[in-house]
Design goal:
It contains 14 helices and 15 strands. The protein is of the alpha/beta class. The chain binds adenosine-5'-triphosphate and magnesium ion.
């Protein structure tokens, strides 16, 4: 992307999929979110009009702003545009100026006119000729190629203005931040759970995150890694409240029960109980995990079904049908991958048994948990000792460490 002279960015929202009141709510949410994300650009002005959003740059950097728009959910696509009044003269002049300003001088082009405003004198087809012919005359060496033009000069004739542009940049789509309620993502230091959290954000969920750490068996750096993952996710959301739960006492106690093969099942159930409790306190309506079917022993159908019985709210598993390759490429795209592969162990690697069960027996699990009379008290204590931090992208830039 390069800096441009166009003073306005036209933002297209999810207009295809939404109708009526929902659509207004959707557009409002995108607007509010963008206002917040672009707060640090004081000259930027917003204008919402007929289902589109126009961002007037007023001298602010296009690249910085476009980068933020491309990380905002609820946006279908956007374009840097030139705007002019609804007259053939003005449209021709603006179109010519835009064509002349292009850095890589195109040798071929094509004009595509969309006439939304049916009151405009000339229809799309005649406008194609009227503008195309004018530009051909004015720029020597330029030719029309309707099939594979180097530049497609687009003209949208809308209610009050005409918009002229060459570029359409795809947005992330999805729902704007927070429009589908709130959930809590179980964030390990791995590759999968940040991607699951990102997909939840994309679906319009406001997100809190919970991480179970085994300090002092694991380093503080392992916790810092999870904070960095949450920071990366917060680039796509307003802020993320992250709960850091001390889990070492629970793990040690569960290990002492002496059943190695069921240890992971027991640990996951304890994690889900604590997540349910904290999630309820924070008005979350679902738990998100990075489970992907069959990936490890705890993610077989029998394992997941025994584990999920410990949850007191729905568990959503955005990655359940994705293979590792798909997950890794998403992780790269959203920027969490380099953080996830840092070699700091999360809580479980220290306590992973050699052969965890892929088919845990629910009645054995129940018996073991009943024997662990200390478990409830230790979980309560872990909740009391949980450290909660609010992570924002802005904090990410200003602070190196929260500890
Ligand atoms: P990930 O890459 O997300 O760690 P994984 O393939 O390593 O996933 P598991 O370690 O079996 O899978 O974990 C399955 C899911 O359980 C994770 O995706 C995450 O949602 C949750 N989870 C695992 N460990 C933790 C932890 N220490 N804190 C919070 N959640 C966890
Ligand atoms: Mg893991």
């Amino acid at each position: 992307m390069e800096e441009i002279n166009n003073p306005i960015i036209m933002v297209r929202m999810g207009e295809q999929t939404l109708k009526g009141r929902n659509r207004h709510r959707f557009e409002r949410a995108v607007l509010e979110h963008l206002q917040w994300r672009l707060e640090r650009f004081p000259h930027v002005q917003f204008e919402a009009s007929y289902g589109r959003l126009y961002i007037h740059l007023n001298g602010e950097s296009y690249i910085d702003i476009a980068e933020r728009i491309s990380r905002t959910f609820g946006i279908f696509s956007f374009s840097p545009v030139n705007r002019c009044e609804l007259s053939l003269e003005a449209i021709r002049e603006t179109a010519l100026r835009l064509m002349k300003s292009l850095k890589d001088k195109p040798t071929t082009f094509k004009v595509s006119v969309r006439r939304v405003n049916k009151d405009f004198l000339h229809d799309s087809q005649s406008m194609n000729n009227l503008v195309g012919g004018y530009i051909l005359q004015a720029i020597a060496g330029l030719e029309v190629d309707v099939h594979t033009p180097a530049v497609e000069l687009r003209i949208e004739i809308r209610e009050q203005h005409a918009y002229i542009f060459c570029e359409i940049i795809p947005g992330l789509g999805g729902y704007p931040s927070g429009t589908n309620g709130k959930a809590i993502v179980m964030l390990s230091g791995g590759i999968d759970s940040p991607v699951a959290g990102w997909l939840a954000l994309k679906q319009g969920l406001e997100l809190e995150a919970i991480h179970f750490h085994s300090f002092p068996y694991t380093s503080e750096r392992a916790q810092q890694k999870v904070i960095e993952l949450a920071e990366q996710l917060s680039c796509y959301s307003r802020s993320i409240v992250l709960h850091m739960v001390p889990f070492a006492d629970i793990q040690t106690g569960l290990k002492e029960l002496g059943n190695e093969t069921l240890l992971i099942t027991l640990m996951r159930r304890a994690m889900l109980r604590i997540t349910t409790e904290l999630g309820r306190q924070r008005a979350c309506k679902a738990i998100i995990t990075g489970d992907s079917l069959g990936q490890v022993a705890s993610q077989t159908l029998p394992s997941m079904s025994v584990i999920e019985q410990a949850a007191g709210m729905p568990i959503l598993r955005p990655l359940i049908m994705m293979d590792k390759q798909e997950i890794v490429s998403k992780a790269r795209m959203i920027g969490t991958f380099p953080v996830s592969i840092q070699p700091y162990e999360d809580c479980c690697t220290l306590f992973v048994p050699k052969s965890p069960s892929t088919n845990p027996n629910p009645s054995v699990i129940n018996r073991l948990e009943q024997r662990a009379a200390w478990l409830q008290g230790t979980m309560d204590e872990a909740i009391r000792n949980t450290v909660t931090v609010t992570i924002t992208e802005r904090m990410a830039r200003e602070t190196d460490s929260y500890f």
